[in-house]
Amino acid sequence: MNITKLKQHPKTFTRLFGIEPHKFDELVMNIHPLWLRAESKRLRHPRKIKKGSGRRYKLTMEESVAMLLLYARSYTTHVFLSVLFDIHESAICRYFAKVRPVVESIFDIPTKKTDLREEEILTLVVDATEQRTERRGTDSGYSGKKKAHTIKTQIVVDTKGKIKHISKSVPGNIHDKKLFDNSGIKLPDNAKGDLGYLGTNITIPHKSSKLHALTKTQTLFNVRHSRKRIVVEHVFALLKSYHILADCFRGHLSHYHQYFAIVCGLYNFARA
């Protein structure tokens, strides 16, 4: 694949890789020192063969990053990527294993327990999304909502749609409230969520029942609440333009959260 030639067609490049050519160049520049550091660390490990022996990497760092972005964007098969980049199919996983942690590390999105700064917690929206997976062991759970085996991840966004926090990816049979409790993030009372967060300190809409219809005040509150909460649904829609987060996930589930974090990082990076 001739990446230099593709950069001459910005619209096509963006549709293929999810970011504009100048953003891609900036991303590669940011990755370069981390790539060299990771390579230096790899070469310091005890070796069975002499340093410098073995086959050379056929793809450059830029091509490796481009292949990862194309894979996340289209979620095509490794066979197709091997033909496109003129490498053997078995080498795809080795390239991805090398480039995934480096790309993930440059995006500063908290994934562990954290307290957001005061200026960041004025208005936040939290929600979780599920993605179908192939039936596995204990890593994916059967979701009664989706009627399939899924894996679930929670995100927190601000009113401008910037992702502020990502939870760990958990089996789909875990309830949203339990996922929120285990994520360790502390949100203010004015943070917005859906009815899945009933029992937390988050503001949720009023729920009607067969015996108790909503009053006009409660209905108006729900409408205003939905208008503020819709931003997280828009973010999910944009994240799922990367087919690796939209199609049935075929890969090893231990890699799923890394791909999710990379796509979220690319989303924030493209909007910066």
UniProtKB/TrEMBL annotation:
Keywords: Metal-binding. Its cofactor is a divalent metal cation. InterPro entries: HARBI1_dom (IPR027806), Transposase_HTH_dom (IPR027805). One of its GO terms (molecular function) is metal ion binding. It comes from the Bacteria. Residues 126-268 form the DDE Tnp4 domain. Residues 58-103 form the Transposase Helix-turn-helix domain. PANTHER family: THAP DOMAIN PROTEIN. This is Transposase.
